[in-house]
TrEMBL record:
Transmembrane segments: 62-83, 281-306
Localization annotation: Membrane
Keyword Phosphoprotein belongs to the record: no
Cross-referenced SUPFAM superfamilies: Periplasmic binding protein-like II (SSF53850), Voltage-gated potassium channels (SSF81324)
Span of domain Ionotropic glutamate receptor C-terminal: 5-259
Keyword Glycoprotein: yes
Protein species of origin: Callosobruchus maculatus (Southern cowpea weevil)
Family note: Belongs to the glutamate-gated ion channel (TC 1.A.10.1) family.
Membrane topology, from the record: Multi-pass membrane protein
Cellular component annotations (GO), alphabetically ordered: membrane
A Pfam cross-reference name: Lig_chan
Keywords annotated in UniProt: Glycoprotein, Ion channel, Ion transport, Ligand-gated ion channel, Membrane, Receptor, Transmembrane, Transmembrane helix, Transport
Record's protein name: Ionotropic glutamate receptor C-terminal domain-containing protein
SMART domains linked to this entry: PBPe
Length: 353
C-alpha cells in the first residue's frame, strides 16, 4: 500500500492540489500504512482509505483477507470446542460398557473377575429360562402372547462386558495392569483396570498419573472366617467393637489414607464443563502481551531518538545574587568601607484601648 501510494500520481501526497478541499487528508506513509492494516482487522475500522484507485484495491484485498482469517479462526475455535465436548469422559460402569475405544479387565483369578463371570452366567441362565418359556409348545395362544414382548426381557450388559474382558486379556498381576493403564494413548483410548476400591484408591493417592473413575459397585464388607461354633467369633466381635468405641479404626484410616507419607499432592484435573479455558484462547492473550511489549519498545526508542539524536535546545538561566550589604567598594584604587542601612517603611495601624 505504501508503494502504490508513493508512486501513484493520484495519491494525496503526489496530488495535494486536487484534494485540498477534502475534509480528511491522510498521507499514507509507512507508519500510516501499518496502522491502517492493523486497525482494519478490528471493528473500529482502518479509517480513511487511500485516494488513488490502486491503493483502494490493495485496501479492499486486505479487508477480504482479514475477514477470511477472522472467520476461519472463529469457525475452527467453535468446532474445536464442540468436538471436545462431544468426547464424553467415562464416569460410570455403564459408560464403560457402552463404548469400545477403551479396553478393560480385572486381574486374573481375583474377586472382581468372579463377580463379572457370575453376573454373565446369571444373565445367560435367565435367557435360557425365558427362551424355554416362550418356545414351549404346550402354551396356549394367550399365554404365548403374554411372553411376546417387543423389548428384550433379559439384560445382556454383563455378558457383553465379560466378552470384552476376555478379548482384551486379563492381566496376571497388579503391576502388569498398571503398566497397561499407563501405556494408554489418552483418557478416551487405552486400557482401564477394574479392581477392589481399596487397591485403586491407594494407587490414586500414590500416583499422580492414575485416577479412579466412577462410583463403587457391588460393595461387600470384609469378614474374618472362623470355624463354626468356635469361641474366636465372640472374641473377634468384642475386639472389633472395642476398636470402634475407642476410634482406633478412624485413627488408622487417617494415618494410612490422609497422612500417608507416600501420598502425592497432585493437581486436580480440569473439568470440561467449565466452558472455554485459558488453553483454548491463550493465543489471544499472547497477541495482547506481544502488542504491549512492542509498544513499550517503540516508546523507549522514540524517547531515545528525541533525546539523544535530535536533542533539545535548553537554555539555563542563572539568577544573579542580591546582596543587602556591601562591605568594600573600590574607587580609583582606594578601598572604602561603606555600610548600607535599610529603613523599615512598613506602617502598622494604631490600636486603641
Amino acid at each position: 500500500m505504501w508503494v502504490f501510494d508513493r508512486w501513484s500520481p493520484y495519491s494525496y501526497q503526489n496530488n495535494r492540489e486536487k484534494y485540498k478541499d477534502d475534509e480528511e487528508k491522510r498521507e499514507f506513509n509507512l507508519k500510516e500504512c501499518l496502522w491502517f492494516c492493523m486497525t482494519s482487522l478490528t471493528p473500529q475500522g482502518g479509517g480513511e482509505a487511500p485516494k488513488n484507485l490502486s491503493g483502494r484495491l490493495v485496501a479492499a484485498t486486505w479487508w477480504l483477507f482479514g475477514f477470511i482469517i477472522i472467520a476461519s479462526y472463529t469457525a475452527n475455535l467453535a468446532a474445536f470446542l464442540t468436538v471436545s465436548r462431544l468426547d464424553t469422559p467415562i464416569e460410570s460402569l455403564d459408560d464403560l460398557s457402552k463404548q469400545y475405544k477403551i479396553q478393560y479387565a480385572p486381574l486374573n483369578g481375583s474377586s472382581t473377575q468372579t463377580y463379572f463371570q457370575r453376573m454373565a452366567n446369571i444373565e445367560a441362565r435367565f435367557y435360557e429360562i425365558w427362551k424355554e418359556m416362550s418356545l414351549n409348545d404346550s402354551l396356549t395362544e394367550v399365554e404365548r402372547a403374554k411372553l411376546a414382548v417387543w423389548d428384550y426381557p433379559v439384560s445382556d450388559k454383563y455378558t457383553k462386558m465379560w466378552q470384552a474382558m476376555t478379548e482384551a486379556g486379563l492381566p496376571n498381576t497388579l503391576d502388569q495392569a498398571v503398566a497397561r493403564v499407563r501405556a494408554s494413548k489418552s483418557s478416551s483410548e487405552g486400557f482401564a483396570y477394574l479392581g477392589d476400591a481399596t487397591d485403586i484408591k491407594y494407587l490414586e493417592i500414590t500416583n499422580c498419573d492414575l485416577t479412579m473413575v466412577g462410583e463403587e459397585f457391588s460393595r461387600k464388607p470384609y469378614a474374618i472366617a472362623v470355624q463354626q461354633g468356635s469361641p474366636l467369633k465372640e472374641q473377634f466381635n468384642s475386639a472389633i467393637l472395642q476398636l470402634l468405641n475407642r476410634r482406633e479404626l478412624e485413627r488408622l484410616k487417617e494415618k494410612w489414607w490422609n497422612k500417608n507419607p507416600e501420598k502425592k499432592n497432585c493437581e486436580k484435573a480440569d473439568d470440561q464443563s467449565d466452558g472455554i479455558s485459558i488453553q483454548n484462547i491463550g493465543g489471544v492473550f499472547i497477541v495482547i502481551f506481544v502488542g504491549i511489549g512492542l509498544a513499550c519498545i517503540t516508546l523507549a526508542f522514540e524517547y531515545w531518538w528525541y533525546k539523544y539524536k535530535k536533542g533539545s535546545n535548553v537554555v539555563e538561566v542563572q539568577e544573579a545574587p542580591v546582596h543587602r550589604q556591601q562591605s568594600f567598594q573600590e574607587f580609583g584604587g582606594a578601598k572604602a568601607k561603606e555600610k548600607v542601612k535599610f529603613k523599615d517603611t512598613t506602617s502598622y495601624p494604631r490600636a486603641r484601648f
